[in-house]
Amino acid sequence: MRVVCVTQPQHPGLPRSRVVRSAVLAPAFTLLATAPHRALAVPPAQPNPGQVRLATGAACTLAVSIWPQFTYNALGGGGNATVTAGREPGRQYLEFDVASVEIPDLSFATAKVLGLPLPPPLRIAIQPLSLQGWIDRTSGAAELEFHAKFCFTASSLYKAAPLLVATRLTTSKVQGARLQGEGVPFQGECCRGRLVGISELQPTGDRLLDSFLMLPSQCIAELDAQLSFG
Question: Is 175 among the domain residues?
Fold first, then answer.
């Protein structure tokens, strides 16, 4: 009988244990190298959101119930929003930072009724709660959902319960039971338009204010506005 001895090939300068491991792992490396490559699933990059600034102008109006219409100078008001693309071509969604939204009070300096300034003791402060919506950059049409508190005061003598207002400001036509209006799409290089919205007002629980405004009732607001995209 002849005995044949098989020995691992020796590699100069390498320990025997390393040579054995190399011999065992070499086929695995060869298999990986010759296997077809598969592309890694990389999530698509999200577009950076844009910014827009809404600025209110001087030619605004407000009407409540059967009372005469206020003319209202809201110059200096507005807020900042984040812009994201919508599914519809040309449509963008606007999410306003409510902390940045400022609306001037209706007061002796900013509001008139029947051509006369609002009497000095009276003031209506508007506290925004939320503002969001969309704009179609092709047609200029827009809709914004607006929620706010209207706070009526007469100097330090009277402070009414807040009046909650929720409305959809739009550049199209609106029609209520007694009130109606029509907006204007945002157009031109200055991107100016007119937003109009009707709100159903519910009693506040403040008897004096509820009686004065004849609540429940409606109010309508028309805002001269401009959008500046960043």
Answer: yes
